[in-house]
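Ticket #4471: complex job returned nothing on first submit. Input attached below:
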Amino acid sequence: MPIAVEGVSYVYMAGSPYETKALDNVNLTIEDGEFVALIGHTGSGKSTLVQHLNGLLSPTSGRVLVDGQDLAQKGTDKRAVRFRVGLVFQYPENQLFEETVEKDIAFGPKNLGLAQEEISRRVKDAMRRVALSYDELSQRSVFELSGGQMRRVAIAGVLAMEPKVLVLDEPCAGLDPHGREEILGLIRRLHAESGTTIVMVSHSMDDVANLAERVIVMDHGTVAMDGTPREVFSRGDRLREMGLDVPQAVELAEALRARGIPVPQGAYLPGEVARAILAFAGKGEEPC
Amino acid sequence: MLNDITLGQYYPGNSPVHRMDPRCKLLLTVAYIVGVFLIGNLPGYLLALAFLWLVVRVSGIRFSYLLRGLKPLRFILVFTFILNVAFTQGQTVLFAVGFFRLTREALENAIYFSLRLVFLVMGTSVLTLTTSPVQLTDALEHLMHPLARFGFPAHELAMMMTIALRFIPTLLEEADKIQKAQMARGADFESGNLMARARAMIPLLVPLFVSSFRRANDLAMAMEARCYRGGEHRTRLRELRYTRLDFYALLCMIAFFVLIIAEGMLLG
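Support reply: We reran it on our side without changes. The output follows.
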């Protein structure tokens, strides 16, 4: 179920003094089974773009095709599209409202109009995926849980719709290192086990480097770069111009190169840089 | 979804109207409304319109922007008009169908009342469009200050209003975000009968209440952390000061009153 974004522009509050152009002629295609990371400075249009992928926002000009179907067209059932393209907002725990964890996760499947047994199967399955114990937590109030648990309940609420594409807007924002690891681990597993297409907005270049197969860089509402992590992170200067960072491994590689230690161009994973250092040390030269 | 509301939305600018002292603007707006209610014939309303148009021109706001603010009011306007036509006792019958008699007085009344409403809304819109909420509550606090001697909590009221106004856009944004998040889970806010729609609001309202309480709590903490303890001995960052601009504005308003009173005596 590929998603094609064709020449999409979006203007907020057109005609008022607060008018802003959030997206400017964006073109991209997301293929089945990809793991795409969307990075960019605050206000670069990432979140606006993400809301176009399931028809929550309609482009001011241009069009978005999900499975070849134009979302803005009259006959398109946007709700049906939203079940196939699951969107997890930033701080999704803010959207929890039901009395119990189980009921909240069941909200999506219920809106799908599924049978009761299918709903409870999906709730159990979604809780298993986000590593929450069904027996222990399903009847608890969502407001009793810890921050990390609430986040996982919210994600489970989207997973329970069993979307083909999962879009996550900064899923790790505001979590402690342990919580981050858990969320990233479950996203990685979801991609590996079920082949779900993942689109993840992130500010952490290290997470992006570790997880993504493709990186799209947004800047001022346009796509500034689109390629493999290796391609994107080898252009550290350009990234810094846009107010972005590079992964720590890239930073280290650059510093080593500046001191004359040969690290292969394009190395962006910690392992690659480590190997280069070992190879250099093995030559018996004095490390600086 | 709620972008149509012009009333209460600040339109940033640097015109003489924007730079006026908010107290003066507030009082002159009240005066203008009193003036509009004094008017009793159509040429008088032309004067009121001309005055408003002038002020809007000086303020740099597009007149169409002001008119857009009337849109949510269209039902009230139609309602007022119909009520006045139907229930005003009059002598001069223009035409009659069965029970219904349209009299000249009723028609005049209906037109005047509707016009008054229109000018009331447009006049106050000019105030809120050219005055930031903070300035407006500052002005209110100053104007209510004499009442503090009788135990009236002028500062507290103004502070509450500032906070409420400050959080309207925040809450709207929050509501929009939660609504979208629930729509992403297949929530349907747009179809179904009244009951179904009311029930559909629960997934929106519960999170909104939860986050408002959390915000209120955070704000109270933040204020206390900065030693806020009410209005006593509090100095302010921006002192309000009347300038020559306010004097000119006052002259304009007096001229407007002279004109409508003269016009009323000549034609009324």
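The CA atoms of residues 144 and 154 of chain B lie 6 Å apart. Closing as resolved unless it happens again.
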